[in-house]
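Q: What would this complex look like in 3D?
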Amino acid sequence: MQLIDPCDETRTVSVKNLRVETTDNLKQLVEDVSLELLPGEILGVVGESGSGKTTLGLALLGHCRRGLRIGAGTIRVGGELLSDKGPSELQRLRGRLVCYVPQDPATALNPALRIRTQLAECLDKNGSGRNISLEDLLEDVMLPSGAGFLHAFPHQLSGGQLQRVAIAMAFAARPRLIVMDEPTTGLDVSTQSHVLKTVRRLCESHRVAAVYVSHDIAVVASIANRTAVVYAGRIVEMGPTASVLFDPSHPYTRALIRAVPDIDSTATVSGLAGQAPDGGADLKRCSFVPRCALAVPACRATVPPAVPVRPGHEVRCLRAADREHIHERSRLLPEETGSRSNTLLDVRQLTASHGNAKILHDITFKIRAGECVGVVGTSGSGKTTLARSLAGLHEDARGQVIYRDSELVSGTRNRDADARRSIQYIFQSPYGSLNPRRSIGASVATALSQLTTVPAAERRARVLKAFDQVALPASAIDRFPHELSGGQRQRAAIARALIVDPDFLICDEITSALDVSVQARIMELLGELQREHGLTMLFVSHNLAVVRSIAQRVLVMQHGRIVESGLTEAVLTNPSAAVTRQLLQDAPRFSCARSAEYLEEHDVV
Amino acid sequence: MVIGVKFMADPKIDKTAPLTHAIKVAPARRSRTIWSASAVWGLILFFSVLMLVIFGPFLTPHSPIDFIGAPFEPPSSYALLGTDTVGRDVLSRVLSGGSVILGLSAIASMLGVALGGLLGIFAGYARGLVDDGIMRLLDVLLAFPQTILVLLFVSVLGSNFWLIALLVAAIHMPQVARVIRASALRVAREDFVVFAHGIGTSPIRIIVQEILPNVASPLLVEFGLRFTYSIALIAGLSFLGLAQEPPAANWGLMVNENRIGLMQNPWPVLAPIILIALLTVGLNLLTDAYARHAGKVNAGRSSAVDLDEDDL
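A: Here is my prediction, written as structure tokens for the whole assembly.
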């Protein structure tokens, strides 16, 4: 054990050679991680699902999930050696010295207690001795401190408000370190932008160090001073955010960046090839070798050490110095096919309501065959209701929808089989859209048997063909949904839609439940389908960057109305509606990280 | 847990290179096994009593209805558990006295769970007026005191195996329907059911193919619970002489017949009580273990947010 250096007050957090392993010692989920944080500094931790980023974040709190333990290394926060403390001491320090903001605030707050009670309890326990009032706490996160708000129960607040309450609670004790695990993943861009700004301001003003865990490198770019990229339990690249983003040296970082659509560029995204690591570091060689295009025999022989490529920027890659392999993002614009072809769908004065509440007002637009139309808007703008109304899943819709030459009635049951076949809908969450008790093959084949006259003997072959189209292996046919990853499930859902040869595909936020790297692969797939099979698509998303990378035209919605529409490029470069400008401004973007001083100092780009 | 994917981002990667195409099946985790210590104990208890009930009648040293000695003789080598109130062999009566209680309970709970489950699924799927109608009718049934209801019918219509099975099933039905309706409500809102609607699947097929398999776990748990209640209820009815009439051997009846001789020979009362207790405790442990297991598995299945958690 090392002695605590009492003079070393500058570094709030100091982690050395941290290893988190399973208690049976089989897997190292976090391996050889060393990092330091200054007061007020925010470190972004980026990685795919299963990379160990959450495990790392929790370990910084001295916490391990059941079945895991801290196997080696030290964690020091504010002079306390966390890795050495017993459970009762850790409990005393949590909430005061270290805090945690979980992904889903709805489950982090007690649904049966009023906001006032929960905040007061937090202040009582952790804020004692300091002169902090409830009002101060709420003011910090820009929430109203009126009686009405304090009297509310968690379910009466919006997701963004809840997350800000959770953040206020974390900052209540003025801890030295706050770990945030994807705190904005469930929020729409505008709320996300508010939350990110709040966190950044609070960290700076209270001199609190923060670790921000996320799979979205664009979000990290807009908040973190420094960024660490985690792959298979190791930090493969760490440095100042701008340096990592604009001059990535590890092939994995480069692939990850290519997978994220950037709001400021028209480049299409490209997914990561190969298999994501399923937990555990490779102790003998570089873990990225199986997916690496630059791998040389030496990569298989040793674990690359962390070497600085620039001051403060370290990379674990033997070929980091090899600059010639860096590819630019591909500048492929989605083709403009729409103007030449016929109108496929003509929506005139569509209104829809839910009970007494009117959700859609006078929606009028056209979609031409073969084009992809994006629908964007904040949550609650009615975009999902629009998608569902067109698909016939929302029955309470009025207005005229002309599909090809005939009018579409609302409600799938009232439509004929051919209309049901021709228009396919893909759901947001692949976790709910497949029956967990039926095999993937059976689920996909049901669509075929219900909507077409394909004889039973040919169905299996057709299912396999559809799997091939979406790059699912044939072996998935007998698997059950829980045996597949989120991305695979979404592919299966797409296969289920494609198997009946639809002409019009409605995609409702289909990538928002997925990792960015998986999202990129799904986007590539959709782009390919559009180009090669002439599929017409309605692509609903709250993410403008995603829409920009796939849609030729875009509709912007607010309060159930279309407030702006036009060619994607025109709308995004020259927005006319206030909501479009707001969405553009709030979108997380790479350029946030491009601080002027950094660029001058290092002469990058 | 991502499998190899065919198209790739980087043109430098050999597209023909075999990527691991085997899907990694989520490994059976130790924490997710159903065989906890209490589950094993439950299984042992339940199956030993079950074996005794099934094979007991073939192993009796005496006929269960023959008089072999004086009333309430203490245990001896001739009658291992002594004799009962009229001098019949207690061991033989214990060995052959469980079948009606167990059989009747099993049939009654199956019937109750099947009817209640069906009504619950239907109510949860249909919602609206149908739901209200079904559930309010079941509430009426729930309002009657259970044992009194059975007593009333049995005393009017006379004791009969199927009548009792039906009555006990009717008692279970409302509770089962409530639990299953709640599950069906949740499942019916899932996207895969919406999708089935979307492609025009008929309501019957949606219920059978999409909803039923997804409420199978709560149905099984309910069956275990109801089975336990049935045993207690039917043992009680037997005690009152409503399930079988003397001289038939029946654990419930034995307790009643032999109460007066508790001081001379406690075994004709104790032995049936112990067996009924072991049976219900065993069954309860098993049900509990299954319910916990099903809960864990479901938690793992619907983890949309905890990918990291799941990739452990």
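A: To summarize the key features: Chain A touches chain B through 78 residues (CB under 8 Å). Chain A has two domains: 13-315, 344-574.
Q: Very helpful, thank you.
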